[in-house]
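Sat 14:20. Reprocessing the chain from the morning session after the first attempt stalled halfway. Input below, unchanged.
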Amino acid sequence: QKDIFKKRLYSKITFFVMLVGLYIISAILAGFKNGTAFFSIPSGIIWLFQKFIPTKNSIQYFPVIFDSAIKTILLSISSTMVSAAFALFLSIIGSNTTGINIVTKIISKVIASFFRNMPVVAWSLILLFSFKQSEFTGFLSLFFITFGYLTRAFSETIDEVATDNIEALKSTGASFWQIIFCAIFPSTITSILSWTFIRFEINFTNAVLVGAAAGAGGIGYDMFMAGTMYFDIQEIGVFVY
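Finished this time. Tokens:
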């Protein structure tokens, strides 16, 4: 038992040393100055408290900022719900459990991987050239990445469902859609809703980025304008709060 304890202790120490060594090597290659960065943290925090405190002049913009926040929330909701509907359909015909055939399974995985792995900012910049600065550009950016993310999540959720119910329905001669509505949906609806709400929370953050990157409106765009055009640090503080 002592030998086992020592081996575990040595393995943990070795792993920790490897992590520290990897960090040091990465910092050196990236030119990251550890001392300067860590010692500048207190002064940075003090600067934030001094500059980000809202003033009477900046608080007067709160109604406009609140309206922009509502638009951002609505953009997040709409893109998430529409994406979830399309993702659910594609995951059903492409899942290993309910997929129609090998072709639909492969196509589903390729589409999900393509849309999911493209960063939302990249989608915003690409679509910006086609649809210009508009809320529709932001909607499409969020739709594409959410569609890929939820397709993968829904497919894995369906694959985790016990096959006993599916086999039982098949033995009774149930059709494809009867299996979906009587076996798949009742077993996966809670997980599907959970993934959808998680993605909505992520999309609110992404909506702020899209608004700043693609001029898609909302609180992100107004924050970008306040920081780059007006240089109003106090107003940005109101946005953050």
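The CA atoms of residues 208 and 220 lie 4 Å apart.
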